[in-house]
Amino acid sequence: MANAIYVLNGPNLNLLGTREPEVYGTETLDDLKQRCVRKAESLGLSVDFRQSNAEGELVDWIQEARTKASGLIVNAGAYSHTSIAMLDALLACEVPIVEVHLSNIFNREPFRHRSYISRAAKGVICGLGGQGYELAIEALASAISQAKAG
Ligand code: DQA
Question: Candidates 83, 103, 114, 125: which one to mutate for ligand 1, based on the most atoms within 8 Å of Cβ?
């Protein structure tokens, strides 16, 4: 099987299900993982699904993805709006990247309207809850097969 798609989740996403359910829904992080695993399997792919509250660990995983992943999905949580370190790591990562947010960051507080990491992303999906992760996997599956057909 081809290299896995890395799905990296940032700070506070470990609290999904109980964290502000009116904003983020009631699905847990494990539910999201199961969705991603099923969607990837249906497309002949696999996922490596991780979460960390630590910015440096997320940077380390992005660096790892440079050689080990076939594509990358990132929900950087609040680091999306602050982290130049994550942006730099993503810019150095030559695999296709899709940025995902569960909520629609554009109909929330103004400080959420800018994501530093979007510059490195092929596409951005927000506001569709867990379905956004599945759509991101579909998008990466096409990008990966186009790259192979090359
Ligand atoms: C989030 C949106 C961010 O603004 C917030 O800090 C998060 C989650 C989302 O998935 O909607 O932690 O990335």
Answer: 103
What's the number of domains the chain is made of? Answer: 1
DSSP state of 53: S
* Active-site pick, 24, 79, 116, 133: 24
What CATH number corresponds to the domain at position 19? 3.40.50.9100
pLDDT at 139: 98
User: H or E stretch including 50?
Assistant: strand 47-51
Which residues are within 8 A (CB) of 91 and not within 5 positions of it... i.e. 6 or more apart?
Answer: 119, 120
The alpha carbon torsion through 57, 63, 66, 71 (nearest 10 deg) reads 30
Distance from the CA of 70 to the center of ligand 1, in angstroms?
24
102 lines ligand 1 (CB under 6 A): yes
- Give pLDDT tens digits for 36-91: 999 999 999 999 999 999 999 999 999 999 999 999 999 999 999 999 999 999 99
pLDDT, tens digit, 9 for 90 and up, residues 95-125 = 999 999 999 999 999 999 999 999 999 999 9
The protein residue whose alpha carbon is closest to atom 2 in ligand 1 is 77
Range of the domain at 53: 4-149
Of 6, 101, 116, 133, which is the active-site residue? 101
